[in-house]
Amino acid sequence: MLFNSILRILFGGSVDLVSVLMQILATLVIIFLVLPFHEFAHGWMANRLGDPTARLSGRLTFNPIASLEPFGALCLLLFGFGWAKPVPVDSRYFKNPRSGMALTALAGPVANLIAAYIGALVFYAVMIFAPDNIVISYILVFLQYYAMINSVLAVFNLVPLPPLDGSKILVSFLSDRARFLFYQYQNVLSMIGMVLLVSGTLSGPINTAENAVFTGVLWLAMLPFRLFGLV
Fold it and tell me: Is the pTM above the cut of 0.90?
């Protein structure tokens, strides 16, 4: 990500400046368009399941200002993972609080997968139908970064550590005693999770999952073009 490119420059290495620019542009598009879509998905699912909190607080919107969290956006730009301002959810409105919370949490990563798939579809459409020139090659780099970052965000948000979406899904399957302990120590778990992420301890399994998801998204996006004999 951008942080790696900065380090490479500082230590005398070389980078492809156009590629870095496309990466920055893709990340900015995600910050201002996809992260609001991610949070909208949470609020929309909660509203569908009976919780009007997000709707009544004005968070059922694609307005990027409503979802922008500056530090989370900076982390996404520098390190490839980040977050937006979470929509408020009150599980007491759900008929089944456990499944309602799990589905609401899952809606965000699904939104990222949808965004990744659309980006991959456009990538293959441009690659197949657009003329082969330098501008198109830069557009393809942009679309590839866009699909990849969304795939990374989908996997990252499913890591079962608070405050990520995966932790809310995990809690739905825990016993009452385990849930109590989880909530009691969630701040400690959050700090431990941050240390594990920053130290790279979780990099292996997370990178494996990210690559698998990204490869799957690309395969699904290519499928309709294969069916019509275009690739």
Answer: yes
